[in-house]
UniProtKB/TrEMBL annotation:
Annotated GO biological process: chlorophyll biosynthetic process; photosynthesis
Molecular function (Gene Ontology), one example: ATP hydrolysis activity
Gene name tied to this protein: LOC107480741
Reactions it catalyzes: protoporphyrin IX + Mg(2+) + ATP + H2O = Mg-protoporphyrin IX + ADP + phosphate + 3 H(+)
Protein name (database record): Mg-protoporphyrin IX chelatase
Family label: Belongs to the Mg-chelatase subunits D/I family.
Keywords on record: ATP-binding, Chlorophyll biosynthesis, Chloroplast, Ligase, Nucleotide-binding, Photosynthesis, Plastid
Species classification: Eukaryota, Viridiplantae, Streptophyta, Embryophyta, Tracheophyta
Keyword Ligase in annotation: yes
Amino acid sequence: MASMLGTSSIALFPSRSRCQSSPSVHALSLTTGQVFGRKFYGRIGFHGIKGRPQFSVASVATEVNSVEQAQKIASKESQRPVYPFSAIVGQDEMKLCLLLNVIDPKIGGVMIMGDRGTGKSTTVRSLVDLLPEIKVVAGDPYNSDPQDPEFMGIEVRERVLKGEQLEVVYTKINMVDLPLGATEDRVCGTIDIEKALTEGVKAFEPGLLAKANRGILYVDEVNLLDDHLVDVLLDSAASGWNTVEREGISISHPARFILIGSGNPEEGELRPQLLDRFGMHAQVGTVRDAELRVKIVEERARFDKNPKEFRDSYKAEQHKLQQQIASARSALPSVQIDQDLKVKISKVCADLNVDGLRGDIVTNRAAKALAALKGRDKVSAEDIATVIPNCLRHRLRKDPLESIDSGLLVIEKFYEVFS
């Protein structure tokens, strides 16, 4: 996905004593020079007073020259190569659930359960290349939306109320990995020790939930996640905000993210409270067809041998899929669903004794996203039949004596109601 390069400035994170630039902005200033005897990076100058690090901001905007563009491209190519999403063979159910969540993040994420070695983590991480760009407030650690107050940090909202002009940049949607060994401080955020020691002030250092706002939070082996981290995720997923109360700091910030989890059911069940927070549930099985297995092995061998060449061979398909997602996201608000279909969806949920109304809401949203992906402005019964097992399968009450797959129960009830 091409980024536009021109002129701009890089804002300083208020709570950090180091400088970070947002990826893919309209303009990027990264020139290094000498300004009044001190080193100058972009628009941020560093100088010391009595041994203490201080910051001063210069109102300078410079053009990005061809050398800097080449450095940026080289930096991107030096990153760990990601397997292309369009190169993944099979696993259509999992891929569809992921695409629908990118089109409409309010679906609420997807839980992927399946056997070992079926490409769950590979598929999720390959989604990075397809993620579209969004508008964010420059220099804001919470990726605040410059137009939607729901996704604004408190500081940005105060600036808007004062009538300040916000500097807006474009950046790709973040995908944040939550490791199983992460501490609660790293996930929620904590006091900025560096600033406390150097400047003697209490400042908040944002955690992974802040970074994941308006993005994707991925938890591999989610069924092995510690209970205290599960509680944190539940709280944020329920309210869309993360509240931190510690070391004399009291702060809240938006934490609305697409929660994606993967795991092996043999390694343990997921807590029902967390399972219900996932909008969709995808089941992944091992491919049994011998020819298909050979194709997967050969494609993987090609990628391991020469990742760049392999990715280039799928560049056209990746670009086509990116365009399809972008079109679906822009067309989504105009997609309609008939009242009759809404009633039938709710009847299926009621007949299956699904607790709460989350199943009804997610099914409606997923069906609209699928219609938008197919380029239609109206939801059909076929769209609902495709997504309803993934939206309701994990919400059914478990019967220990029942051997039939819960997805098949949903399909049976769907045809009974919709016929």
